[in-house]
């Protein structure tokens, strides 16, 4: 599992590497990508929409600091559905986790951020 | 006794006195030598008198005083009053304490096995032996023995002191169950392994994929939308092919629902008709036709279509002057008893109907407001083809009957109508208008003798109720009127009657020419009678009393001697004059609590339609006896009668 803070730096570095023309192109597309995209989710529909909304507000609020964003999401999730939630927010990370079934959410937001939320005690 | 009394000094001590008296007696008498001898050595008794003893006289001594001894304390107070807190008053207590202690003494003996001497937690057996041992040691010396025991014995006796009187029986003691350990473990919540990698290009790819998917679904929606517009319900109903299919399905459903009725319609024959030489027959009710839309309307006209054997039109309106409203024409088919094939609404109640005999799609209609309409059923429109209005000769009273006639010389269709305003009008259908001509005005009284002066114009016309045309002589027709007369008229003379019949006491509801024997007609009236006439004679040939107002009468299309009549009692009558000239061969209650208003024979099938004032039309199958066809000359019968 990657640490959310460090991956942010990585992503920032990679973005710098791209050419100026490519960056402007990227910006156009990223503007259009300004919506949450759920990659994988096995939660119940009701909970799913709620969690997506929660993640969107948290990440938008703390866009510069993924650590606080993840902390906020984790605390909200713990409050909403009981303890032992884990949250990863970052621009680049790899993971291999064991999670309790029907308690996993893997989504992208804003075209650059990946968010992984799962429960495992 | 006297002496004895004297000797007895103490009056209080009776017993003592007696004793002394016996002793003195013995000494005095000396009859027992032993006794005397025994007491001789005793010093003589000297009776001492206490000083200050009362000196009593003889009678006083004689007096007997009785004393009752009881346990009451004479010193106890009798009038103790105590405050009663409950009732908040002082109350005299009735129970006085009479207990008095005169002497009290506490003993110094104590029980041997008192707590101080009990041994200190020794086994039970030992204590018992010990206690027995102390017992044997000696009774009188017990207190000193226990007071000075040896030192070791004292040691034994110390410890928890036993209470002799505080113990529980073994039988009352319950077992304390032993404890045991038990444990269980739940299944952990199901878990799954999930792995992926997040980086910028994978995020970008995911979003692009999503965009493409969205574009695709948008395209699909655009393709779907226009087709959705086509799929509303109107499209189904307007599609002529589908409509046809739906009609077929509806008929199939009805055929399944009323399968037994359809079987009866086709095959049922009343077996009892064949038995013996029974002349009577019966009517079997088949389908019931009710127009759901107008249940409160009365059936005012029933007319079979002359070409389609299963189609008939029913007119709905009201005979009640105060309950008029819009009317309705429903065309039912026997193939679909649940819903009419055609349905037309009219502004006023329908009073009469007639199908054109040659053009079966043309339907003439007379309304309560006096107008006449012509519908063409082939046109898929809701309104009438022709309609008369106030300008072009509308009647001023209900049109009681309409009847198509042969096309005129210019091949224009024309029909007649009769109304209670006293006019019989002929209506000719031209290209786009309806032309009327008054055929006759029914004068109330030809001679006019009953009317005087100014009243004459008011009552100059008689209200026509019904008419019928001669089947072979075109210009001849008879008109029944409200006041009960029947007039034979001709289209060619519009001023006078050929003949007048004083037929009925009340209004004539129906007149019908016999379809086979041209000169004979029937009339039905509210005065409970049906009369048979020869139109050349002014007296009826036969009169039938049906015990109720006769709503309608109809000749059978298959026999010259069979006709049916319906009455307000709800009964249908079928007469066969060939079989019985006086009695109906069938009299049957068709409906209860409703008046039958109209009847009509199917021109091809042995089916009779009967309509009532509850808006129901019942189809009846005639049993074999009712549809006999005879080959005899019917003229003979009518001449006989």
From TrEMBL, chain A:
Residues forming coiled coils: none
Intracellular or extracellular location(s): Cytoplasm, Cytoskeleton, Cilium axoneme
One GO biological process term: microtubule-based process
InterPro entries associated with the record: DLC_sf, Dynein_light_chain_typ-1/2
Pfam family, one: Dynein_light
UniProtKB keywords: Cell projection, Cilium, Cytoplasm, Cytoskeleton, Dynein, Microtubule, Motor protein, Transport
Top-level taxon: Eukaryota
GO cellular component entries: axoneme; dynein complex; microtubule
Sequence similarity: Belongs to the dynein light chain family.
Quaternary organization: Cytoplasmic dynein consists of two catalytic heavy chains (HCs) and a number of non-catalytic subunits which present intermediate chains (ICs), light intermediate chains (LICs) and light chains (LCs).
Role: Acts as one of several non-catalytic accessory components of the cytoplasmic dynein complex that are thought to be involved in linking dynein to cargos and to adapter proteins that regulate dynein function. Cytoplasmic dynein acts as a motor for the intracellular retrograde motility of vesicles and organelles along microtubules. May play a role in changing or maintaining the spatial distribution of cytoskeletal structures. Force generating protein of respiratory cilia. Produces force towards the minus ends of microtubules. Dynein has ATPase activity.
Name of the protein this chain belongs to: Dynein light chain
UniProtKB/TrEMBL annotation, chain B:
Location in or out of the cell: Cytoplasm, Cytoskeleton, Cilium axoneme
GO biological process, one term: outer dynein arm assembly
Annotated region (Disordered), positions in chain: 1-43, 115-169, 214-233
Keywords for the protein's UniProt record, in alphabetical order: Cell projection, Cytoplasm, Cytoskeleton, Dynein, Microtubule, Motor protein, Repeat, WD repeat
Biased composition (Low complexity): 123-135
Main subcellular localisation: cytoplasm
Extent of the WD repeats: 501-534
InterPro entries (UniProt xref): Dynein_IC, WD40/YVTN_repeat-like_dom_sf, WD40_repeat_dom_sf, WD40_rpt
SMART domains: WD40 (SM00320)
Polar residues biased stretches: 17-31
One of the record's GO molecular function terms: dynein light chain binding
Any matching Pfam family: WD40
Keyword Cytoplasm attached: yes
Domain of life of the source: Eukaryota
One CC-aspect GO term: outer dynein arm
Similarity field: Belongs to the dynein intermediate chain family.
Name of this chain's protein: WD40 repeat-like protein
